[in-house]
From TrEMBL:
GO terms for biological process: adaptive thermogenesis; amide biosynthetic process; amide catabolic process; amino acid metabolic process; energy homeostasis; lipid metabolic process; proteolysis. Residues 228-373 form the Peptidase M20 dimerisation domain. The gene is PM20D1. This is Peptidase M20 domain containing 1. Pathway: Amino-acid metabolism; Lipid metabolism; fatty acid metabolism. PANTHER family: N-FATTY-ACYL-AMINO ACID SYNTHASE/HYDROLASE PM20D1, N-FATTY-ACYL-AMINO ACID SYNTHASE_HYDROLASE PM20D1. Secreted enzyme that regulates the endogenous N-fatty acyl amino acid (NAAs) tissue and circulating levels by functioning as a bidirectional NAA synthase/hydrolase. It condenses free fatty acids and free amino acids to generate NAAs and bidirectionally catalyzes the reverse hydrolysis reaction. Some of these NAAs stimulate oxidative metabolism via mitochondrial uncoupling, increasing energy expenditure in a UPC1-independent manner. Thereby, this secreted protein may indirectly regulate whole body energy expenditure. It comes from Sphenodon punctatus (Tuatara). It catalyses: L-phenylalanine + (9Z)-octadecenoate = N-(9Z-octadecenoyl)-L-phenylalanine + H2O; an N-acyl-aromatic L-alpha-amino acid + H2O = an aromatic L-alpha-amino acid + a carboxylate; N-(5Z,8Z,11Z,14Z)-eicosatetraenoyl-glycine + H2O = (5Z,8Z,11Z,14Z)-eicosatetraenoate + glycine; N-(9Z-octadecenoyl)-L-tryptophan + H2O = L-tryptophan + (9Z)-octadecenoate. Belongs to the peptidase M20A family. Pfam families: M20_dimer, Peptidase_M20.
Length: 492
């Protein structure tokens, strides 16, 4: 196999002098340009603070610098005759890689270059320093999601330097405002592609990962590939009241009324929907991987699903998989210590389980609050995403499976999963029904909270693997049609 990239991150974030051998290519080009000598250039991708603070507040200076940077470090990508590069929405990047066989339907790889803010407190190194400690590169964006943005371009750069020309065309979309909705980047790229009549055979975005030692009772790493995302709904609750003096208060103030409504929502969680959505597929696919007695339980969910669903709801992470979650995120009320508050407002954010809709959840909210005095206003909402195909004839799934076998031989199983967060890919659903969310990085138990949290990091080895995965995926996608279905598909 390819031991791609000897100086992983060096190559990751600047071009590498040592190129991996490509199967079937007898002579390697020896004229690859050496890496820039300036070592402060190293890991520049992480050092550029491409922060999305809010939909209207992006560090566009940094985003512009990021664009300059990729032009500099991926010269082959930017000069190949069959690759068209366009800047969309000023800072997003759309690449069209024209394959040699136009009969094959194109696919698309997505990533985003923006990151959430990070303040240095409680980080082991500064979040925009990209310092290396014990084999890990620390920094905001190392797994969400500059690893994909740089990984895709790096893999393509390597392939081009080996004179590789894909047969199947593909697009690369690197958005610049994913963390704040994708309205300026992803949505504009989708508009562009829709205007051109593009239909995709499948699309791969960030999302789920390879879990190692995270799923209790399964020893070998599990590659989870997101086939849907939860929906979301934000409502504002408000109570208006005539102001007055606190010396002659009414029986209830707007604050009291609103607090009672919020309390009811927290005390009455949305129903546990385990078994009504695709989350059940995750367990069915993994059933035989569990050790005894979990394997017995998981292979007999028809009998044990009530028990499993009760266990899952005990932990906040797994609870988010089995139901629509309710989070009261803002509360504002009162103006003065001796004035009856004229109004009180609260914001509640719901993440909708794939088996429910915005409409249903809103109805439950109204019935739970059951108080005419509380005005309920929908601020913004979208339904859960459609479930992408997962079967032996799903092209994307088969290509991911093959690529995982090639690059991550230790992975014991591949299963479909639900993403509890959202990605840019949701904007692409008119272009394909086959949207998959998977980032080829290995996560252990303590890696989850690093995303958007403290000490986000990627191992040097992990980044090498990411590039290798993409390098292999692009080549594997040249397959014209799928092989005959495998009987051992489910156990890999
Ligand atoms: C925005 O990016 C620029 C250029 O990289 C940087 O110098 C500046 O400090 C950043 N601003 C904020 C508010 O992060
Ligand atoms: C998909 O296309 C329909 C019809 O043209 C349009 O109304 C809808 O907004 C599109 N959805 C997305 C996510 O772009
Ligand atoms: Zn992300």
């Amino acid at each position: 196999s390819l031991s791609l990239v000897s100086h992983a991150l060096l190559t990751a974030f600047v071009p590498s002098p040592s190129l991996p051998p490509m199967p079937g290519t007898p002579s390697l080009p020896t004229s690859a340009s050496p890496p820039p000598s300036c070592s402060s250039n190293r890991l520049r991708a992480i050092k550029i603070p491409t922060v999305s603070f809010s939909p209207d507040e992006l560090n566009t200076t940094a985003m512009g610098e990021f664009g300059d940077y990729i032009r500099k470090v991926f010269p082959a990508v930017f000069s190949a005759k069959f690759i068209q590069h366009e800047v969309i929405g000023e800072y997003s990047h759309l690449f069209t890689v024209q394959g040699s066989n136009l009969d094959l339907q194109p696919y698309m790889l997505l990533a985003h270059l923006d990151v959430v803010p990070a303040s240095p407190e409680r980080w082991v190194v500064h979040p925009f320093s990209a310092e290396e400690l014990d084999g890990f590169i620390y920094g905001r964006g190392t797994v969400d999601n500059k690893n994909s943005a740089m990984g895709i371009l790096q893999a393509l750069e390597f392939l081009l330097r080996r004179n590789y020309r894909p047969q199947r065309s593909f697009y690369v979309g690197i958005g610049h405002d994913e963390e704040v909705s994708g309205h300026k980047g992803a949505i504009k790229m989708v508009d562009e592609l829709e205007d051109r009549g593009v239909k995709l055979s499948f699309l791969l975005d960030e999302g789920s990962v390879i879990l190692d030692g995270v799923v209790q009772g399964i020893k070998k790493p599990v590659a989870l590939i997101g086939i849907t995302e939860k929906g979301a709904m934000t409502v504002e609750l408000s109570v208006e009241q005539d102001p007055g003096h606190s010396s002659v208060p009414p029986k209830e103030t707007s604050i009291g009324i609103l607090s009672a409504a919020v309390f009811k929502l927290e005390q009455n969680p949305m129903p546990n929907r385990f078994g009504y959505g695709p989350e059940i597929m995750t367990f069915e696919h993994l059933a035989t991987e569990f050790s005894f007695p979990l394997n017995l339980i998981m292979t007999n969910l028809w009998l044990f699903s009530p028990i499993v669903s009760r266990i899952l709801q005990k932990n906040p992470t797994t609870n988010a998989i089995v139901r629509t979650t309710t989070a009261v995120t803002m509360f504002h009320a009162g103006i003065k210590s001796n004035v009856i508050p004229p109004s009180a407002k609260a914001t509640v954010n719901f993440r909708i389980h794939p088996s429910q809709t915005v409409e249903e959840v809103l109805e439950i909210v109204k019935n739970t609050i059951a108080d005419e005095r509380v005005k309920i206003e929908l601020v913004d909402a979208f339904d859960p995403l459609p479930v992408s195909p997962w079967h032996d004839q799903a092209l994307g799934v088969q290509i991911f499976r093959q690529t995982l076998l090639d690059v991550f031989p230790d992975v014991g199983s591949i299963a479909p999963g639900i993403c509890i967060g959202n990605t840019d890919s949701r904007h692409y659903r008119n272009l394909t029904d086959a949207i998959y969310r998977f980032n080829p990085v290995i996560f252990k138990q303590d890696d989850m909270p690093r995303v958007h949290g403290l000490n986000e990091r990627i191992s040097v080895k992990g980044y090498e693997k990411q590039v290798e995965f993409l390098f292999q995926l692009i080549q594997n996608s040249d397959i014209e049609k799928l092989p005959e279905p495998h009987s051992d598909f489910h156990d890999l």
